[in-house]
Amino acid sequence: MHVSDEDIAFLSLRELGALLRSGHLSAVELARMYLTRLDGLGRQLNLVVTVTDDVAFREAALADAELKAGLDRGPLHGIPYGLKDIVAAVGSPTTWGAEPFKQQSFAYEATVTKKLRDAGAILAGKLATIEIAGGMGYDNPAASLTGAAANPWNPNYWTSGSSSGPAGAVAAGLVPFAIGSDTSGSILFPAAFTGTAGLRATYGRVSRFGAMTLCWTLDRLGPMCRTADDCGLVLEAIAGHDPQDPSSLTQEYRYSGDSRRTHGFRIGVIEGACAGAEPEVQANFEDSIKLLEDLGTVEEVALPELPYAEVAQIISAAEAYAAFDDFIAAGRTIKLTARKAHGYRLAGAVLPAHDYIRAQRIRRIIADSFADLAGRYDALVAPSLGMVACRADEDFEYGLPRASGRPLNLAGVLSGTPTISILNGFGQEGLPTGIQFAGAAMRENSILDASTALEERMGLWRRRPNLDRLEPQAGGAGHVQRQQEKGMNS
Amino acid sequence: MTVSHDDGHCEISHPLPYPSQSAAGVEIVRRRLMEILSLLHCGHLTDAQMREAEAALALQVGNCETVHQFPLKNSHEPAFALALSRVDARV
Predict the structure, then answer these.
(1) What pLDDT was estimated at residue A76?
(2) Do A120 and A76 contact (CB within 8 A), yes or no?
(3) Which candidate, A204, A210, A200, places its Cα nearest to that of A240?
(4) Most Cβ neighbours (<10 Å): which of A245, A334, A427, A465?
(5) Mean of the pLDDT values across residues B8-35?
(6) Do B79 and A217 touch (CB under 8 A)?
(7) Is the Cβ of B87 closer than 8 Å to some Cβ of chain A?
(8) In what order do the strands lie in the sheet with A48-51?
(9) How far apart (Å, rounded) are the C-alpha atoms in residues A218 and A359?
(10) For residue A257, is pLDDT > 80?
(11) With an 8 Å Cβ cutoff, are A363 and B60 in contact?
(12) Taking CA A98 as the corner, what is the angle to CA A235 and CA A238, rounded to the nearest 5 degrees?
């Protein structure tokens, strides 16, 4: 049976793996297809910084040889992926999405890059990010070296950030999975806007060595995929203690995978989670709850009233300033595209140290309180955001304060606990809505199993954006072909 | 109010409230901090930067007031407190 390139582009990791192992297509053919899409559609949608075609064809040829020889590295073997352009990979710039760092490159690779290569995955490109992962402040989608990332579901709208490229690339079938980063929502929010699955795993689960630091005690790297199951497969490959990242967990992670639970979940619905949400977001959330009721027990639960936003903002202000103190003190924020970034972080210079520590003391209370609550359930759920994507050509309200779902997000941010956002329907302008599953520390499998069970019930993840209105650039396909010929002949 | 224990240990059961500032006091602090910010940048900040910094500072001062009013005991530790583990000596 013929499977078109368009069909292949939107398959799950398991389905792609089956095609590779059955000989239906080779890793080189798969890489060529995704590279063409990255270089064409990807650039049109402002989702791509660098297409790493030389690396991709080399790694794909090796994957084909290994699989043919019987060496199977696991579910990611031969699968192309993208890295948010704050993660170092040798042989390509790592621009941090910002003009002042446009020529930056590193002579070493991030641990996550190495782990993915060891798993046989194929690095296909560096993907768009908001400048400095949004850390200097921004309120306009175009605050990026590559411009405003267009939402594949409706290119007049934005993907959200700061993992704008990873989310958009997976949604548009440009790569089967990508690695994003999250300090206070930068995986979850783009996943919600683009209808992809974005997993912010337990703090320390994935080594941050080789990734740009924004906030030492908040930053996490994580998978962005088509499904929660795919997120589990990627997380297993990239998780693990790394001596080069002292904050990385020593506990191993094994994804539940085929032995995952399919029912009997205890779900806590956050009280008032839909306050202020758009009608479609609320309707889709309520439909999701009805389906979850078939999968276990569902009850409403109140999130303790604690100063989540204030604590998160103080910690971010101190740590982001410290991470970029020389850059900020030298006045270089004026070189960033975002007007807000020119002055937003300056205030960190006069934040008293004792207030930062006070915020960290309250944070421990928040974390203990959330651990107590989350420990009683397999997952706490709320809309990922209370709105669908905003327009790509307009400023947005900084921090999306009217977007419900944020308190649960911030509780997870501060507690270091895992959260996943998955697609749960569509709203205005045909744009996706998301539902977030938040769990207790190191219980990724609980939220992955529950969200996978809901995905299977909803059957939505197979829907694709209509990309026909965007004609692929002819030059893009030719460019990739020429690079491949050069690589094969050298 | 103090609570006495059988072992003679006394603790303050209700921590003293963090003194809160009046709105006028907060505004004076904010203005002085903006002056310091400008001095730190040798007066090179543009009007646009000053506006963004002022807005950020107003938010920051407000956030700090909020955490000041959250009652804490001396024993509450920061979330990043070190927890060292013993490394066995090599034989």
Answers:
(1) 98
(2) yes
(3) A204
(4) A465
(5) 78
(6) yes
(7) no
(8) A48-51, A122-127, A80-84, A177-182, A220-225, A197-200, A419-426, A432-438, A379-383, A265-270, A296-301
(9) 13
(10) yes
(11) no
(12) 10
